[in-house]
Amino acid sequence: MLVAEKSFLRMLDRIAPDPVLGSVAMGVPAYVAKRMEAEPVAAETIRIGFRSLCAYGEFVEASDAEVDGRLSACDRTPWFETLTHWVAEAIYADPGNGGNPDGISWKEIGYEHGLPEGPDGPPVAVPVSPPRPDFGQHFDAIVIGAGAGGGVVASELALGGKRVLLIERGRWLDYDHGGHRDHLRNHRYPLYGHNTGPDADDGPRIHVTSDGIEHHVATHTVAYSSNAACVGSGTLVYGGQAWRFHPDDFRMASRYGIPAASSLTDWPIGYAELEPWYTRAEQMLGVAGPQGPLPHEPARSADLPMPSMPQYETARILHQAATALGISTTQPPLLVNSVPHDGRNACIECGSCVGFPCPTDAKNGTQNTMIRRAMASGRLLVATETIADRIVTDIEGHVTGVSLVWEDADSRHSANATANNVVLSAGAIESARLLLLSATEKEPDGLGNNSGLVGRNLQGHTYPTAFGLFDDEVYARKGPGVTIATTDFAHGTPGIVGGAMLADDFVMLPIIFWDAALPQWMPRWGQAPHDFMRANFRRLIQVKGPVHEIPNPDCRVELHPNVTDKWGRPVARLSGVVHPETIRTAAAMLERAEEWLAAAGAKVVWGDPPKPRLSAYQHQAGTCRMGTAPTNSVTDINGRVWGHENLFVADASLHPTNGAFNPVLTIMALAFRCADHLLNRLEDRPDLERS
After folding, report:
1. Cα 529 vs. chain centroid, distance in angstroms?
2. Dihedrals φ, ψ of 30, to 5°?
3. DSSP 101
4. Per-residue confidence at 689, pLDDT binned at 50, 70, 90?
5. Which of 1, 208, 281, 359 is 20 to 30 Å from the Cα of 350, by its Cα?
6. What pTM, to 2 d.p., does this model score?
7. What are phi and psi for residue 69, nearest 5 degrees?
């Protein structure tokens, strides 16, 4: 072995010197070599940094103190940060990635995967795509996107007697096909890829940073703002927090006024209008949670169909602290089976809920509830791995159907499917993009875009997060993990526009804990961080919440003039930065979270206020907002695109604002409402149907 190689191994040994979790014992050298082979650009940067480190002589025989002193000079340099993170991945990620033999690190820190097959979950298995339907038949409706909105509206129409085609660009996935637990490639932590789609060869998006520079971003990255591409979309892998919005979430402008340079507005409907549809979503999909109205709800017409999930020590001590502070608490409602329900088993409280399919199919998404029932009727046909290329219109500009493209092993294919109605449910970015891609002579800037609003007001959720370190073990090994919340700060904080629901969070994977929960002041190499992981993995609580963002019209989706996807279509260009009021609110919510943890007895509390950026990775919304007129919105109150009698939107694109809560139940409620409107419309207008 060359001296330089020995020096490199010596460096790795000092990055991870722990007696048990050290470099050699945890398989770090082989893992680092694999990463360097996979990432040649980063590898060359590391080699250059290492050569600079060795400029003052090799250190094979140097003392530990001497090596550590030279490494200290590299701390926080880009090449060294990359290398130290690779070392952490080898130690704390799942064994299937290489490193962490027999899950040694997990045993040391107290993490339990809770999976029947072992730490890596079921073997990797490629799903088999079902045959595509006959696109030559005429449909009552074509729905584009099989997620929270599209899965509901397509299924309700089919169950209501209509013939429906559901288009999904992704595949059919479940626990046996997609449940493999790769801790570095999933929708909670997509470090090198994810476990659904879109695929890497689908092409990038262009993300414009605040300095005006365009960046080509890959499909799995945070900047890409990917929705899961599969049947069920995010509902296959989400945590399933099933909150109703606060009544004041629907009337932000009326309550607070309109901040300068914002596009803050009221919804054209309110809580009372959505209440029966919230109830229908809770009953039809299955929600576990407290009985009776939650603290922020004025009323509800039915209790949740399942009792809450179990609570553990975190909830007990946060509840005691909230009581002392005069804060009301509740248990977050979850789209998860707390007991056997709908022919499926209850949650087994595994240690990797969010980002993965459920081992007992206890997560209630559209793929295993609504879509399954509707397909049994014979009236819902699902086309997977199929792209909606554009919305088709006739010579007068009336929507007649959808142009579809797909590929198999040998060639590419295309077809036109016709329908009385088309419903867009592809997510806030892709729904807006498809309207823009479907421009006509009558609407050269895109369907429904005569006022220039399609793609504007892109928003998501900014998440301030506070951590508290306790003397005792307070963090349960069991999932899902989110057990207690307060809605008191969703509104009413003096000087703040809106607010956020605050809650503890889902169980963290150890590598996420390393990334997110280690204190900012702690080095990411040497003995200290491993001591912290071992001593404090179960002594830490995080409190966080989704800030009700103030929409900014400059946050938007456009078509890029030069960059195309593999089908030759312009990719989405994403630009803008959240409104300053959102950052102010996030800072205030961080203070509330830190106060709660301190009152609970945390001996140290920390957290970083979120930095200004484009927000669309968590809960993208707003690009086809509903409203009262074509001059202030893209759709009417039923999701119908202005100027088109039979073109609808049924996803979070509709949200004028995105609430101070996780939005999935609101997406579903609006989809049930849209489906009801369509069913009534078709019954009232039989001339819109063809035999």
Report:
1. 28
2. -65, -40
3. G
4. very low
5. 281
6. 0.98
7. -65, -40
